[in-house]
Amino acid sequence: xxxxxxxxxxxxxxxxxxxxxxxxxxxxxxxxxxxxxxxxxxxxxxxxxxxxxxxxxxxxxxxxxxxxxxxxxxxxxxxxxxxxxxxxxxxxxxxxxxxxxxxxxxxxxxxxxxxxxxxxxxxxxxxxxxxxxxxxxxxxxxxxxxxxxxxxxxxxxxxxxxxxxxxxxxxxxxxxxxxxxxxxxxxxxxxxxxxxxxxxxxxxxxxxxxxxxxxxxxxxxxxxxxxxxxxxxxxxxxxxxxxxxxxxxxxxxxxxxxxxxxxxxxxxxxxxxxxxxxxxxxxxxxxxxxxxxxxxxxxxxxxxxxxxxxxxxxxxxxxxxxxxxxxxxxx
Length: 331
Fold this sequence. Notes:
The protein has 331 residues and is of the alpha+beta class. It folds into three domains: 2-42 and 58-84, no CATH class; 112-185, Roll (SH3 type barrels), CATH 2.30.30.830; 217-330, PDZ domain (Pdz3 Domain, Roll), CATH 2.30.42.10. The protein is built from seven helices and 15 strands. Strands 8, 9, 10, 11, 12, 13, 14 and 15 form an eight-stranded mixed sheet that branches. The longest helix is centred in the first third of the chain and has 32 residues, at 9-40.
């Protein structure tokens, strides 16, 4: 046997080559037939309408036509698989269906976590976006319209302080600004921020009423630049009738001046009190009233003189100097 193969080697080789060629030709013929069937898509012609009488072999022809139709459909499906096969990318699927891009500001239904985003007021616009199958790899070109600079940013990048990019989609960039979810649309300038309304200056609080002031004292007493005063008699009579009104108006203590004159020294004089309205100050010593020395003995009769007097002269020792004050009581 071995001797026979060696002697007829070229014959065996020629027979093998002929068999391979025949198989290749058969395969080529099959593929061409499938292509032609897929392109024509025609079914076998029906029976001629001109024959008025039915053929006795009609059931057989119907079965044959059905079988041919089934083979044609199988051939079409096979041809579609063959023609749709991409030898350069065996794992690639069919071409994706092209859909309209998402409008600026719209939310992709698959990205429910982005719902509720507000239009960002930052001076940023989207110049371009480049999407990837992996959303984490998508990038966008953002331009700061105020500073006139731009840059390429991806998910996790920070275009400015407190701002982080969280998603890049077609023509839209979603960011987190100070904890708020916002979006930046393509080529749209952000609306201007509303001008702060001019606030009216707060009204000055009303001055608190002086608790030491006697009601009606300011209206009843008027003094000139020299220190002479005019007092309404009705006010004087109200003080005589209600001595308790004099409480809190200051205090007076017996004392002696540097020249030995007796008198009463004022202290505790506050603004708005009766001594203040009459031009007297803390430390003043009242030595005389209408020419009579003011002592503990003459003090009780002073109230009787005030009831009927129309003019009173008060002598005051102020830091060693004698000052006279004229007080006129008018009805």
